[in-house]
Amino acid sequence: MTQNNKEPDPHGGPLRRFNDPAYVPLCRNLAEVRENIDALDQKIVALLAERGRYVKDAARFKRDAFQVSAPARQQQVIDKVLALAERHGAYPEVVEACYRALIAGFIAREQTDFTQMSDVETGDPT
Ligand SMILES: C=C(O[C@@H]1C=C(C(=O)O)C=C[C@H]1O)C(=O)O
């Protein structure tokens, strides 16, 4: 196969086919594939914003950095999303990698939020 370093033509027809006869194509061209991906990305980012708001709220119920990190809960989330991946036919390695990155990012934000809070009983900044 030759390499031409040109981006694919979004409006061209198919250049390859899957060998699996059961494969049902979804789109007529790459532009249509990308419209669908872009529409999903809008929903995914909106959902990430909503998830982030709950992660922020979680900081109100924690005493220290270990509780912010909550490693047992992290593992529970990974196990749960891997089971969901299987149920929905998502690629498990993609789901796991995404969630490990997401959780790491959310924890970093939660740790920052935690430093900008005060103890409910003493009023001490933590
Ligand atoms: C939101 C929480 O805090 C952190 C963030 C998590 C997440 O993004 O799912 C999970 C555990 C914690 O590391 C929580 O403890 O539930």
How would you describe this structure to a colleague?
Keywords: Isomerase. Its EC number is 5.4.99.5. Residues 24-114 form the Chorismate mutase domain. Pfam families: CM_2 (PF01817). By secondary structure, the chain is mainly alpha-helical. It has a domain at 30-115: Up-down Bundle (Chorismate Mutase Domain, subunit A). The protein contains four helices and no strands. It has helices at 30-58, 65-69, 71-88, 92-115. Helix 1 (30-58) packs parallel to helix 4 (92-115) and helix 3 (71-88) packs antiparallel against helix 4 (92-115). The longest helix has 29 residues, at 30-58. The model has no long low-confidence stretch (mean pLDDT 96). The structure holds the ligand C=C(O[C@@H]1C=C(C(=O)O)C=C[C@H]1O)C(=O)O.
Quick summary of this structure?
The protein is an all-alpha fold and 126 residues long. The protein contains four helices and no strands. It has a domain of 86 residues: Chorismate Mutase Domain, subunit A.
Search tags:
mainly alpha, Chorismate Mutase Domain, subunit A, 126 residues
Q: What is the fold named in CATH at topology level of the domain at 30-115? A: Chorismate Mutase Domain, subunit A
Level of helix content? 55-70%
Low-confidence stretches: none
How would the global form be characterised? elongated
How would you classify the helix and strand content by structural class? mainly alpha
Mean pLDDT over all positions: 96
Q: N-to-C SSE series?
A: HHHH
CATH class of the domain at 30-115: Mainly Alpha
Under the CATH scheme, which architecture of the domain at 30-115 would be assigned? Up-down Bundle
Total number of helices = 4
Approximately what portion of the residues adopt beta-strand conformation? Answer: under 5%
Gap between N and C termini, in Å?
A: 60 Å
Listed once per kind, the bound small molecules are:
the ligand C=C(O[C@@H]1C=C(C(=O)O)C=C[C@H]1O)C(=O)O
Protein name: chorismate mutase
GO molecular function, one term: chorismate mutase activity
Domain Chorismate mutase: 24-114
Organism: Hydrogenophaga borbori
